Amino acid sequence: xxxxxxxxxxxxxxxxxxxxxxxxxxxxxxxxxxxxxxxxxxxxxxxxxxxxxxxxxxxxxxxxxxxxxxxxxxxxxxxxxxxxxxxxxxxxxxxxxxxxxxxxxxxxxxxxxxxxxxxxxxxxxxxxxxxxxxxxxxxxxxxxxxxxxxxxxxxxxxxxxxxxxxxxxxxxxxxx
Length: 176
Fold this sequence. Notes:
2 domains
């Protein structure tokens, strides 16, 4: 006669639990397993309940990305550098973006490009780590009907539950 697998499993469990030695060890094993599951769930609930810590800097009006990389300091003294190549920052051409962090490591670097005075749609890309504390990626800017257009590049640095938001502004000029 054929018995389904769950019936055999049930019978084996009943036979095993009728063993006095098995009864002696089953409760400590179950308690350790239960404590592990509760600990894991508690840790994840605690981690997800921690508030997101954000430090947002204000753009530096003296920064000129056409002259070279711009560097900004965080409240803890660490620094972030941002650079766009080519320095002429042409529209409708490939651009290379580079971010360097000094004094700290990050998990992820995001770059968002937005028009300041005109909605040009948001361009977002994740920069890849190319060396220690150095991230880069390629992208581009759409053309605008204006001769000159002001843009904001927002660098978002992610480390665990911490975010650092660093804005950089620059201007593109059509025909250059």
